[in-house]
Fold glutathione transferase.
Amino acid sequence: MAGEGVKLYGFWVSPFSMRVELALKIKGVDYEYIEEDLQNKSPELLQYNPVHKKVPVLVHNGKAIAESQVILEYIDETWKENPIMPQDPYERAMARFWAKFIHEKCVPSFRKALLGGETEVEKGIEETKENLMILEKVLEGKSFFGGERIGFVDIVANVIAYWVFLYQEAVEKEVLTEEFSVLCNWKDKYVNHSIIKETLPPKDKSVAYYRARFAQSKASS
Amino acid sequence: MAGEGVKLYGFWVSPFSMRVELALKIKGVDYEYIEEDLQNKSPELLQYNPVHKKVPVLVHNGKAIAESQVILEYIDETWKENPIMPQDPYERAMARFWAKFIHEKCVPSFRKALLGGETEVEKGIEETKENLMILEKVLEGKSFFGGERIGFVDIVANVIAYWVFLYQEAVEKEVLTEEFSVLCNWKDKYVNHSIIKETLPPKDKSVAYYRARFAQSKASS
C-alpha cells in the first residue's frame, strides 16, 4: 500500500520504534526507515520531536507524530486495512486500558525487579509477578490479546514478549519464568509470527547491547 | 440524551472523576453519580476496577471501564453528539500527545515543585516552568486546546486549570503564576464556562481538604 511519504525515525533495538514498525508491516504500509544515532541525534529528530527528543517519530505527508502508542492509533485510523484496534467502543477501551497497564505498571516493575538497587529489587519482583498474573488472566483462552490475531495490545506488549527476555539474559536474572505458562505460550506464538520474526532485532547482538548499556549506567550511578 | 444505564463511581474532589463528569455533561449524557468513600471503598468499586481499585469507574449497560482518559475516549465514541476529540486523524494524534504530556510530564513536575522534598523542589520548579512554556505555545492564538470549544485536552488539563490553584493555596506556594499569561487566560475562560463552573468542586472546601491531606502525608512520611 502506498505510504504517501511515510518516514520512521527509529533505533534498531528500541521496543518503542519497533512497535511502529510492526504496525506498519501488519498494515502493509510502505515506509522509509531512518536509523538514529541516540548519542548524536539528527537535526530532523530534534525538529520533529522537540518536546521529548526521542524515537520513534512517524512523519506522514510532512507532519510528525511522536509517542509510540499515539502513533499506533494514528496508523490504525489512517490506513484501514488489517485493523489493529477492535471496532467496538468497549473493546477499544479495554485495549487502551491494557496497553496503559503494560506501559505504566508492567514496564516500571520489570525495571525495578531487573535493574533496581538493593532496596527496590524485592518489591519489584513482587509487583512484577502480580502484574504478570493479571495479564495471564486476560490472555486465558485466547491466542493473542487481540483475540485470534495480533492487535494493539500485543504490539505494545512486545516489551514483554521479547525485550524482557533480552534484559533477563543481559543481567542474568529471571522474573518472567516458565511458571507463567499462559504468557510464555503467547510469547512463543508472538515471536514466531512471520511478520514479527523477520522484524525483531537479532537476539545476540541485542543482549550484548543491553549488557554494555546496563554496565555503563551502573558504573555512572 | 438517554444514558442507557450509565453510572459513574467518583470522588467529589478527584480531578480524574471530574474529567468524566465534564465529558458526560458536555455530551449531555444522563448518569447516576455514586460518591465513593476512599477510606472504605465499596464492593462495587473493587469489583469493577480490581486492577487499580480507584475512581473513576464508568459503568455502561453493566460493563465497567476505568482510567479517566480511556473513559473519555469511550464516551466520545459511544455518544456522538458534541464531539470532544477532533475528527481528523492527525489532530486526534495531537490531542492524545498533549493529554499524555500533561499526564506524564506536567502532573509529576507539579507534584515535585509543590510537594517534593528539599532535594526535589528546585528541579521540580524548573521542569514545571519548562512544561508550562511548552503548553503556552500550544495554546497561543486559541481559546482552548480544542480550538473554539472545550475538547479532550482541556478536559484532561482540568488538573492545571483548577487543581493546581487549589494545591498552590493549600501549600502556600506558587509555581503557576500570572507570568504564564496565555495559560492564565485559558484557565479564566475554562473555569467560567457554564458547564465547568457548575460542576467543579467548591474552592474553599477543596483547599481545606488538600491542606489536611498534605499535612497528613507529611506527618506520616
In short: The mean pLDDT of chain B is 95.
